[in-house]
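Lab manual, section 2.4: Encoding a predicted structure.

Procedure: take the sequence of the chain (337 residues), apply the prediction step described in section 2.3, and record the output as structure tokens. A sample record is shown.
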Amino acid sequence: MRQLVISSPGVVELQEAETPEPGPGEVQVLTKAVGICGSDLHALAGAHPFIALPCVPGHEVVGVIGKTGEGVTGLEAGMRVILEPNLVCGRCPYCRAGRYNICQQLKVVGCQTAGAMADAFTAPASRFHPVPDSLTDTQAALVEPLSTAVHAVRMAGQLAGADVAVLGGGTIGLLTLIAAIRAGARAVAVSEPRDSKRQRALRLGAAFCADPLMADPVPPIREALGGHADVTFDCVSSQASTGQAIRLAENGGTVMVVGVAAKDVTIPLPIIQDREIRLAGSAMYVREDVLRAIDLMTDGAVPAGELVTATLLLAEGAQAFKRAASGDDVKVHLVTS
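Recorded output:
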């Protein structure tokens, strides 16, 4: 079979490999569509703190079951499925508490194990969810990143009537915008340097958009919201965005760190303490978030055409990564045929 490999920083290669066979309790899935995500781009740059190269990326995937391993029930060949890529131990305190997204032995398909940017891949049967017939492959492949946004919104707490800021208008930022609105936010303001993404954010329901490259985005966002942001979702996680998020949260607001930071950042701890700012991380998701994301997608909350702006063949993987890294597109999908 074919698989895409990030072999070294900046290098994406299409290679031949043995088609994987499912072991006991596993499923072999034939990839139909798979998205390139921010973590994949961090890996390509050699900057992801938890991904070693070479790797076979891909976890935002929809596919068809090719084979099932011994002991698998409830799934059968020909079923269309999406992947929940977190591989967990099921035994640590976090798994036992239902917070398996922070499992002590967490691995992720496409990060620490071979992913779905291939003609076929395998994973434990428990990691797959059937796809409703009403969803297209494009919609189904967006469920995984939408789950990340849904989880961040849930972790933030009650958003009904809240004023919200989202830093970053990429895929996760735009999906967080949608999830926050569906959770009842009164108004959502977005900071994003690219005009095309700001326009998308406005079409998706943002009350205001700021360009952080033109001027400090904090004052106009606070003015648009009529004060501080009750919750700020930092989908960039850089030194600059962290500082902006904390300023937006003054006083008494919450900052949810959603983006994967490429390196350590510093925070104004006296301000965190004195202004009672809550600073919390949000990592991946759990089953209830995935099911909620499927419901939102089925309900038509996410216009896939606004998010998926390019679709290329698996054989065009290097070009697809180049497009995704340029920032001009929102979400780039790869299809096997």
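Check your result against the sample. The first strand starts at residue 2 and ends at 8.
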